[in-house]
């Protein structure tokens, strides 16, 4: 059967043929796989949790069909991190660990709601518990995690939502997703002042942080007293320097989020909430479809941060179905 495999760290996966797994009923025929910064980090050797023995099949999530015909979303169980992952036509995965996906859902949209979408959604809805009195600052708001977090904050009634990112054109598009103001993540010397001003002068009461590094340090300086800060990534760097007087003087709360720490029920609840919003058009998730034959291109696109790449191993729409909002036509 067809698969894509990494043979050297730092290089994109290559097409190959592998043996079909034989695990009784614990078989999922893969329809779609979303690539994520997590996969790129593992494949480059940068992930703190290591990588499977080389060569290995990457991919940490997928949507597919179980042997019983149920459509499921699969994540966890070591996929793509401790063992071979999902960029293969058939995966051995316990059926009871899969999350049911409605048959009418487009498989590409369904998988795009996964790792990055859940992180963005849950950081706002559950970790920060955003409400109507909050001013929410989203760092890296132009990525999938950030754009979902921004839209989640708006859906939950935040008083003001501010998008921060490095690219002016992409930042401008966040206004169409509900951002009240935008801030370029450049000019570090005055970044804290610009963040505070964009948040209305008092600073954000919630910071959603997929980046860590210097942007987070600036956001801490800008934060309002009693602010909650949720960290869920380190794309700007694994370390930063925070001033004790900022943290204790303003009595800030710094929270962490990892999808790997979620129970199956917690993951299912957040995933299905987001999928419902995305399917109804209340949350937009932009992605680009690639066939398995173009997996190296999809990998490079994801590594460059140019949107979310979804690899299709089988057509994921039911007869008569249509792609949901957020569908990005094939190239």
Put simply, the count of helices is 10
Helix content: 25-40%
Distance between the termini: 25 Å
Beta strand count:
15
Strand proportion, as a percent range, falls in: 15-25%
Largest sheet: 7 strands, mixed
Q: Could you say which overall geometry the principal axes of the C-alpha atoms support?
A: globular
Name the poorly predicted regions: 316-331
Structural class: alpha/beta
Q: What's the rounded overall pLDDT mean?
A: 91
Main attributes?
single chain; 331 residues; alpha/beta; six-stranded parallel sheet; globular
Task: Walk me through the structure.
By secondary structure, the protein is of the alpha/beta class. The protein contains ten helices and 15 strands. The strands form three sheets. Strands 3, 4, 5, 6, 7, 14 and 15 form a seven-stranded mixed sheet that branches. α7 links the parallel β11 (206-209) and β12. The two termini are 25 Å apart. The relative contact order is 0.16. Residues 316-331 have low confidence and may be disordered.
């Amino acid at each position: 059967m067809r698969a894509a495999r990494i043979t050297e760290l730092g290089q994109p996966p290559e097409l190959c043929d592998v043996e079909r797994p034989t695990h009784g009923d614990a078989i999922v025929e893969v329809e779609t796989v979303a690539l994520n910064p997590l996969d790129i980090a593992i494949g480059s050797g940068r992930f703190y949790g290591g990588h499977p023995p080389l060569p290995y099949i990457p991919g940490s999530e997928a949507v597919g069909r179980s042997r019983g015909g149920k459509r499921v979303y699969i994540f966890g169980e070591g996929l793509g991190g401790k063992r071979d992952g999902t960029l293969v036509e058939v995966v051995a995965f316990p059926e009871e660990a899969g999350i049911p996906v409605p048959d009418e859902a487009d498989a590409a949209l369904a998988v795009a709601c996964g790792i990055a979408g859940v992180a963005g959604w849950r950081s706002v809805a559950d970790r920060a518990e955003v409400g109507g009195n909050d001013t929410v600052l989203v760092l890296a708001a132009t990525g999938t995690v950030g754009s979902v977090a921004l839209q989640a904050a708006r859906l939950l009634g935040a008083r003001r939502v501010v998008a921060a990112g490095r690219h002016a054109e992409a930042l401008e598009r966040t206004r169409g997703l509900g951002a009240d103001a935008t801030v370029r993540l450049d000019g570090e010397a005055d970044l804290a002042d610009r963040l505070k001003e964009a948040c209305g002068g008092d600073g954000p009461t919630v910071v959603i942080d997929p980046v860590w590094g210097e942007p987070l340090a600036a956001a801490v300086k800008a934060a309002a007293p009693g602010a909650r800060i949720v960290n869920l990534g380190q794309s700007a760097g694994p370390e930063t320097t925070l001033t004790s007087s900022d943290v204790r003087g303003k009595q800030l709360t710094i929270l962490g989020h990892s999808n790997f720490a979620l129970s199956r029920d917690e993951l299912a609840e957040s995933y299905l909430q987001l999928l419902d919003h995305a399917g109804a058009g209340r949350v937009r998730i932009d992605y680009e479809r690639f066939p398995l034959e173009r997996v190296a291109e999809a990998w490079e696109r994801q590594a460059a941060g140019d949107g979310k790449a979804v690899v299709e191993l089988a057509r994921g729409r039911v007869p008569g179905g249509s792609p949901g909002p957020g569908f990005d036509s094939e190239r």
